[in-house]
Each structure stands twice: as C-alpha cells, then as structure tokens.
C-alpha cells in the first residue's frame, strides 16, 4: 500500500489539515494518509503545546469517520525531538510491506534543506507537496522526487485557533464537531 505521512503538531487539528489529507488520499495515488503526531518539533518551541496524548486523541476524533485516514503515535516512542528521517526509517522497519511518501506544505520547502538528512528523505520516500498561501517557486520545483498536488489554499492556523480559545471566542467550522466538543469538555487551550 502507498501511504502518505502527514507530520505535525496538530495543536489542534483543524479543517485545513483534514482537507489536505482528504485531497491527498482522493486525488493522488496514495491509498491512505497517516497523521504522525509529533511530540516536539525540533524547529518550534513547545510552550503552548498541548500534551501529545490529547493531540493524538483530537486527531483520532477528527478522522474517525474516514477509513482512508489513520493516526500513529510512532514518535511518542522515539527520542525527543524526533527527526523526520529517523521516523521514516522506523516506519519502514515497522511496516516493510508499505511504501511511504512524505506530505508537506509548500511553505516548508524553503526550510527543507535545513532538515536532518533532507537528501536522504528525498531519496528514501520523496515528497507530496500541497500549496500554501504566499509560497513561491523554489529549486525543488523540478526535482523528480517531489510531486506537487493541487489542493485548496487554506490559511487556518492552529495559533489562531488557540488564541480564539484562550479569549473565549468560537472555533466552530474551523475544527470538526468531535474536536470542538472534546476541546470544550476537557477545557483544552484555555
């Protein structure tokens, strides 16, 4: 099976993430998309990061009605911070029957050369890249291991959602109903 791996903090998961994952699995050769919940991104500070188990549960709730989308906690069992190349190696060892592709926003391509062993990532799995607002052409545009996928341009950020929640504002329609309910019931991000 060909599986797209969609890494992120998902702090919280929102409809932008869901639309991208669904677009990848319904308009490319990917047979499933797996959300890889990252406990700690090596490029981000974790001051406003919800506990990884809560973020995992939010993702699980968000995708429960779509059999083509899965969530994995593989990085919870790895040294922190986890690096994408190490996770890819672990996934291939754990699931040798699958072929993996890395799903990435076009805005991350500028920083991609700074990633640990980025050249190995290209060689090992390749990239499926979705458009992001205010992203421009770059030297990966013609790379044979990089596939650009048409997808809706969405500019919803988890940072914005957390600010709304902290200020008592609605996040309705920006997250799925099960995610909104869990955030409300558990009083997350307030």
How would you sum up this structure, described in words?
By secondary structure, this protein is an alpha/beta fold. The chain is 33% helix and 16% strand. It is built from six helices and six strands, in the order E-H-E-H-E-H-E-H-E-E-H-H. The protein has a six-stranded parallel sheet with strand order 3-2-1-4-5-6, with helices on both faces. Strand 4 (99-105), helix 4 and strand 5 (127-130) form a beta-alpha-beta unit. Helix 2 packs antiparallel against helix 6 (177-186). 34% of the residues are buried.
Any descriptors?
6 helices; 33% helix; alpha/beta; globular; six-stranded parallel β-sheet; 16% strand; 190 residues
SSE sequence, one letter per element? EHEHEHEHEEHH
So what's the overall shape? globular
With strands numbered from the N-terminus, the spatial order across the biggest sheet is 3-2-1-4-5-6
- Uncertain parts: none
In percent, how helical is the residue content?
A: 25-40%
Oligomeric state as shown: single chain
For the CA atoms, what is the radius of gyration? 16 Å
Taking the sheet with the most strands, its summary is: 6 strands, parallel
Number of strands: 6
Share in β-strands: 15-25%
The average pLDDT score comes to 93
Q: How far do the termini sit from each other?
A: 40 Å
């Amino acid at each position: 099976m060909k599986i797209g791996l969609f890494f992120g903090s998902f702090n919280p998961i929102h409809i932008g993430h869901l639309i991208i994952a669904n677009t990848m699995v319904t308009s490319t050769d990917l047979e499933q998309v797996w959300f890889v919940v990252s406990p700690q991104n090596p490029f981000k500070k974790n001051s406003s990061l919800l506990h990884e188990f809560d973020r995992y549960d939010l993702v699980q709730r968000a995708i429960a009605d779509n059999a083509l989308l899965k969530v994995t906690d593989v990085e919870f069992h790895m040294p922190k911070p986890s690096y994408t190349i190490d996770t890819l190696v672990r996934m291939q060892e754990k699931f040798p029957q699958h072929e993996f592709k890395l799903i990435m926003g076009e805005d991350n391509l500028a920083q991609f050369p700074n990633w640990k062993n980025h050249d190995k990532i290209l060689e090992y799995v390749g990239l499926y890249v979705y458009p992001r607002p205010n992203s421009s052409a770059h030297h990966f545009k013609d790379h044979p291991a990089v596939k650009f996928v048409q997808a809706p341009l969405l500019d919803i950020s988890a940072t914005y959602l957390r600010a709304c929640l902290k200020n008592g504002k609605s996040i309705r329609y920006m997250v799925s109903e099960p995610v909104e309910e869990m955030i409300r019931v558990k009083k997350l991000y307030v």
